[in-house]
Amino acid sequence: MKPLYTAIVTAKGGRDGRIHADEPALDLPLSMPKSLGGPGGQATNPEQLFAAGYAACFESALRLVARMQKRVVDDASITAHVTLGKADTGLFKLAVALHGRLPGVAPAEAQALMEAAHQVCPYSNATRGNVDVQLVVVES
Question: How many separate domains does the chain show?
């Protein structure tokens, strides 16, 4: 792999700590969600951060494949649903549902664009075979 960019973030205190990066500046508190027995509140959590990264990266991949196919998806958006769960084996696992809203694009074509983006997106490539990822077209 030829490195293009490396993000460096330090976490301290686990799910009830903070994350910090020097460049660009990032400093956020973390808090365990109430549904996992934590206090919840205004802080973020690892699943939200993963969902944000995946949604942004996937939408960029979607726009790339749409441009390559000469399709316009200017108003497209991706909402990532990241679920933390427990497998039958007792291990914690993640599952992802990527909900794509592509106004003005027929549902079958939107699904095809999302499938193509799923082959391009670095998050999809990193999770393939390890995380159940569903692609859902949301009709506008």
Answer: 2
SS3 for the chain, per residue? Answer: CCCCCCCCCEEECHHHCEEEECCCCEEEEECCCHHHCCCCCCCECHHHHHHHHHHHHHHHHHHHHHHHCCCCCCCCEEEEEEEEEECCCCCEEEEEEEEEECCCCCHHHHHHHHHHHHHHCHHHHHHCCCCEEEEEEECC
Tokens of 136: 């859902």
Which domain does 30 fall in, by range? 1-44
Q: Are residues 17 and 85 in the same domain?
A: no
| 59 and 94 inside one domain | yes
Which structure tokens are listed for 112?
């095809």
Residue range 43-84, pLDDT digits in tens? 999 999 999 999 999 999 999 999 999 999 999 999 999 999
Q: Both 84 and 103 in a single domain?
A: yes
85 and 123: one domain? Answer: yes
pTM over 0.90: yes
